[in-house]
Each structure stands twice: as structure tokens, then as C-alpha cells.
Amino acid sequence: MPMTISPCMHTRLAAKSLLALVLLTLWAPHAFADALTDAKRRAAADLFKQGKNADGIALLQEVVRIDPGEYQDHLQLARAYEKVNKVQEAVEAYHRAQDLLGTAATAAVDRAAKAEIDRRLKILEVQTQKVQAAEEEFLKKLDVLEREAIAAKDVRAVERIFRLKGGIYQATNRRDRCGLEVAAHQGWQESGLSVKQGATYLIRAVGSSTYKKGVTVSPDGSTQMSDNGIAPLGMLLARMDTKVGTYLRIGSSHRFTAEQTGKLSFLLSADSKELVGATGGAIVLIEQLQ
């Protein structure tokens, strides 16, 4: 005999189906996101096995941005940073893994991982201190040489010293200083340095740029205005990514206090037509003052 379904049963079945659909809708995006994150973890591990450390690091960085609470990810990232000689980043990743291990809710804490982290941090921090001491000593010597080169009006020597300082700043990933070369034929160029609101910075520049009008100038610029009307042709300008449209006239030396936090970009003042065929540029040092 065929089974008959009452209107009441129809209603209950429909309600259950609707509830299941709602739960599936709520669960599915999270499940998909977790599956994608796990896939990135596996892909990063494969890349590390292949020796493609930079690509593996990029993937793991995405993973820890999405799911920052897994100590294994930070530990793997720290190991990878060591392989590419990014010591400071490795130390930070080891510390993060250490913190997460210390607050692990489970009783079965990975003792082998803890021992590895403690050992690597001890080694790396000693190395870091030695390297930093050597860097500071070298920078002090460069300061002396810079003063002597300026007194002797040896422009080439000053440029070389600026390049050396800038290279050290970039290599050590300093957050309080930065060095870069600004090419005359390009538009706005990012420094990579984020200045902090209320902090005071000294920006200095050396070099020369030549434009198709036959004008060769220092970062202080020409006696004539650029066609863009912002500043003299070839003058070093700066702007913050948070205040596009507002410019600082830097020249060869400028001290300023940041009104807000943001990244700095630089330009040797020239209209787009004036950039064509321009050569040379400026070596720029940005240093936060104590």
C-alpha cells in the first residue's frame, strides 16, 4: 500500500531541507578556504623540496596571513628564511613559532620543534649581534670618509659612499632608514620605507641628471621650472602614498617630520615629455633621526 505523506510531514521535511541547505551554505565557504590553505601548505612543501625557496616562502606567507595560529607554518617559514639568508625574518618567524608553542592548548607539545627553535634562536641571535656590531662599525667609518670626501669636494667619492650606505640599509632591511637610486627617466619610484607619524627624517641625495634640453643638474634642480610646474627641472621630490598630490621639495638635503604614517616615493621633477631621453639620477638616503 503506497505511503501517504500528510501536510504536516511535508512541512517538517521542507524545514529540515531548508536547515540543511542553510548549514551547507554557511559551512562550504569555510571548508573551501581551509582546503585551499592546506593545498598551499602542500605546494609550499613541494617547492622547498625542489629548492625553490623564494616561491615556497611566498606561498607560506599567504598561509600565515590567512591562518596565523599554526606554529608549524611559522617554523617552516623560519627554516626557509635561513636558507635564503634572511636572518632577521628567520628570527621573527622562530619567535612567533615559539610563542604559539608556549600557548598551545594541547598537552602534547612538539618537544622536538621546541628544542629546534630554542637552538636556532640561540645561534642566530648571537650571529645577529656580531653582524650588527660589524655593520655599525663599518657605517661609522663611512661617516668619517663621507665628511672627508665632502671637505675635499670629491663628488664621486661621496656618491660611492652613499651607494655603500644604501646597500647596507637595504640588505639589513632596516625600518628606520633606507637607500635607493632614483632614475631620471622614470616616474615616481617607491622607496619601500614606511615613515612613522611624528618621527623626524633626514633625506639626502647626490648625483646628476641630464635632460634632452641639454640641462645637467644636481638633485637641487635647474634654475628653470619643469614643464609640470611642480618644481625646478631635476629637483628631487617626495610624496607619501597617503597624500598623493602633495609633494615635498627635497633637493640635496631636507629634514621633515611625518604628519602621518605612510610609504615614501621619489621623483626627479620632470614632465612626461622631459623624461624621454633623460639620463643619470640621484642616490638617496633616508634616515630617521634619534
Poorly predicted tracts of residues: 7-11, 21-27
| Major sheet size, sense and barrel closure | 5 strands, antiparallel
Secondary structure: helix percent: 40-55%
Q: What is the CATH architecture annotation of the largest domain?
A: Sandwich
Supply the helix-strand structural class: alpha+beta
Strand and helix layout:
Blueprint lengths: L6 H43 L3 H14 L4 H13 L3 H16 L8 H41 L3 H17 L5 E7 L5 E7 L4 E11 L5 E2 L18 E5 L7 E2 L3 E5 L4 E7 L3 H4 L3 E10 L2
Antiparallel strand pairs: 1-9, 2-8, 3-4, 3-7, 3-9, 5-6, 5-8
Care to describe what's here?
Strand 5 (236-240) and strand 6 (248-249) form a beta hairpin. The radius of gyration is 28 Å and the shape is elongated. 51% of the residues lie in helices and 19% in strands. With 290 residues, it is an alpha+beta fold. The strands form two sheets. Strands 1, 3, 4, 7 and 9 form a five-stranded antiparallel beta sheet that branches. A four-stranded antiparallel beta sheet has the order 2-8-5-6, with no helix packed on it. The protein has seven helices and nine strands, in the order H-H-H-H-H-H-E-E-E-E-E-E-E-E-H-E. It has helices at 7-49, 53-66, 71-83, 87-102, 111-151, 155-171, 272-275; strands at residues 177-183, 189-195, 200-210, 216-217, 236-240, 248-249, 253-257, 262-268, 279-288. It has two domains: 26-124, Serine Threonine Protein Phosphatase 5, Tetratricopeptide repeat (Alpha Horseshoe), CATH 1.25.40.10; 172-288, Galactose-binding lectin (Jelly Rolls), CATH 2.60.120.
